[in-house]
């Protein structure tokens, strides 16, 4: 592996991290701050990076945690809890998509790490199963099975959410 | 289409390429934060360990042209840190680590030939350690700045050579703008340390007119306060300090500005 410096890692991967962070539903105004925080962590942990996974997998893991922290902080500062029913009164298409991304990110947090990264690389980064296998350092069959389990888990979770938000919607209509 | 698919496709529809200038902008901030952490003494140990490992391997680093411009970003970092360190060094324990790591961060991207000076300076960190209070700005930081200024003189137009080999479409401009900014402020900083405050002020004003909202505007505004204080122009320093705090209340440099001459009790008249 070529020598890794903060600069070389940054140069090769800042776009990847930026995209990941965006797809984690981080609002536009916060994206650059979050990306920067990711590389601050990278700087601290670079010496400990052992190359057991690809650098992108490693970066994604860091980005995920930083984004989660950012979500939580904004939640504390802005509003008590995330609920899909709390969509803005006049949702524009972009805000809606960002909200969906945010929701997906919340759901991804429930997955075991190894399933999450496979799902993200395959479904969100659009990488081929072969590339995902290379990136995560597992066999291609493992990639397929993790992807399947991740989809099952997320499918159940989104279904549960949908039912709940429908029920809440009905309750609200009845109450109003 | 399941609900999950909808979420995925919504997330994917957010996929856009980042603005090209974001790369250099964020790198400038990352490098500054890394240096600021080091200067502030927070996580010094970790940062030093990492930076040390990095600079060891950087000795053999291929010098991409992005690296060249980033070497100057490194200088900008040293500049930011230098001002911060000025305050930190007075109160912090006199350990050589901060200086060493600032120099290492700055030298990450330096080609081996340019690193000579920095490395030589860091080989004798006791200089600063021995007298942390005598000189508010560590000499090593100034050395890095000297290099940056020299570089600028030697190579007034690094851009043409500076085209990256592998990413020809990469926007080189933002990084080199940052380099220009840091060179200009580096000049100001060197002038301050040599007691040429009027020259420093001229360079600061030059920076303000060329890069009013530049990446290093925060550093410039803080430096301006200091220079105006040095010149005894407290009323102007006060205005400059107000301007600074209005914009950068949470800056790492805010403490320095607050404790400057601008807010001495007799300056309020």
Notes on the structure:
The complex is a heterodimer of chains A (176) and B (269). In chain A, α1 (6-23) packs across α3, α5 runs antiparallel to α6 (129-136) and α6 (129-136) packs across α7. Chain A has one domain: Winged helix-like DNA-binding domain superfamily/Winged helix DNA-binding domain (Arc Repressor Mutant, subunit A). By secondary structure, chain A is an all-alpha fold. Chain A starts with 5 loop residues before the first helix and ends with a helix. Chain A contains 7 helices and no strands. Chain A is 75% helix and 0% strand. With 269 residues, chain B is mainly alpha-helical. Chain B has one domain (23-163, 171-267). Helices cover 69% and strands 0% of the residues of chain B. Chain B contains 13 helices and no strands. The relative contact order of chain B is 0.11. The A-B interface holds A 3-8, 10-11, 14-15, 18-19, 22-23, 25, 32, 35-36, 39-40, 43-47, 96-98, 100-101, 103-104, 107, 123-124, 126, 151, 154-155, 158-159, 161-162 and B 2-4, 6-8, 10-18, 22-23, 25-27, 29-30, 33-34, 37, 43, 46-47, 49-50, 53-54, 57-58, 60-61, 64, 66-67, 70, 108-109.
What is the average per-residue confidence, as pLDDT of chain A, rounded to a whole number? 83
What is the H-and-E element order of chain B? HHHHHHHHHHHHH
By CATH, the superfamily of chain A comes out as Winged helix-like DNA-binding domain superfamily/Winged helix DNA-binding domain
Rg of chain B, nearest Å: 20 Å
Task: State the domain count of chain A.
Answer: 1
State which percent range the strand residues of chain A make up. under 5%
Oligomerization:
heterodimer
């Amino acid at each position: 592996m070529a020598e890794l410096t903060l600069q070389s890692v940054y140069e090769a991967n800042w776009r990847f991290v930026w995209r990941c962070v965006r797809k984690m539903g981080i609002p536009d105004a916060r994206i650059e701050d979050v990306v920067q925080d990711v590389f601050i962590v990278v700087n601290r942990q670079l010496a400990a990076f052992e190359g057991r996974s690809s650098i992108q997998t490693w970066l994604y893991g860091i980005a995920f945690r930083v984004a989660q922290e950012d979500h939580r902080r904004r939640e504390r500062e802005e509003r008590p809890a995330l609920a899909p029913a709390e969509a803005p009164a006049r949702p524009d298409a972009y805000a809606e998509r960002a909200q969906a991304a945010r929701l997906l990110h919340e759901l991804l947090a429930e997955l075991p790490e190894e399933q999450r990264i496979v799902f993200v690389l395959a479904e969100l980064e659009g990488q081929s199963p072969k590339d995902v296998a290379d990136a995560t350092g597992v066999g291609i069959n493992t990639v397929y099975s993790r992807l399947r389990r991740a989809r099952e888990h997320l499918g159940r979770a989104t279904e549960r959410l949908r039912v709940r938000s429908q029920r809440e919607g009905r309750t609200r209509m009845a109450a109003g | 289409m399941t609900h999950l698919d909808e979420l995925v496709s919504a997330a994917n529809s957010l996929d856009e390429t980042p603005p090209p200038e974001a790369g250099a902008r964020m790198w400038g901030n990352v490098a500054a934060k890394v240096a600021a952490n080091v200067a502030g003494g927070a996580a010094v140990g970790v940062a030093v360990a990492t930076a040390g490992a990095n600079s060891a391997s950087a000795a053999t680093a291929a010098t991409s042209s992005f690296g060249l411009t980033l070497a100057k970003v490194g200088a900008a970092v040293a500049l930011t840190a230098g001002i911060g360190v000025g305050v930190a060094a007075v109160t912090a324990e006199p350990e050589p680590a901060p200086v060493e790591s600032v120099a290492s961060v700055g030298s990450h991207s330096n080609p081996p030939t340019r690193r000579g000076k920095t490395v030589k300076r860091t080989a004798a960190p006791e200089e600063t350690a021995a007298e942390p209070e005598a000189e508010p700005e560590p000499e090593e930081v100034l050395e890095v700045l000297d290099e940056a200024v020299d570089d600028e003189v030697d190579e007034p137009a690094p851009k043409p050579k500076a085209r990256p080999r592998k990413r020809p479409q990469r926007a080189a401009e933002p990084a080199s703008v940052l380099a220009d900014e840091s060179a200009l402020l580096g000049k100001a900083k060197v002038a301050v340390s040599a007691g040429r405050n009027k020259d420093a002020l001229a360079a600061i004003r030059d920076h303000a007119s060329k890069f009013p909202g530049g990446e290093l505007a925060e550093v410039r505004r803080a430096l301006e306060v200091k220079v105006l204080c040095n010149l005894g122009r407290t009323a102007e320093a006060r205005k400059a300090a107000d301007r600074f705090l209005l914009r950068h209340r949470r800056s790492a440099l805010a403490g320095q500005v607050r404790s400057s001459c601008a807010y001495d009790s007799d300056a309020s008249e």
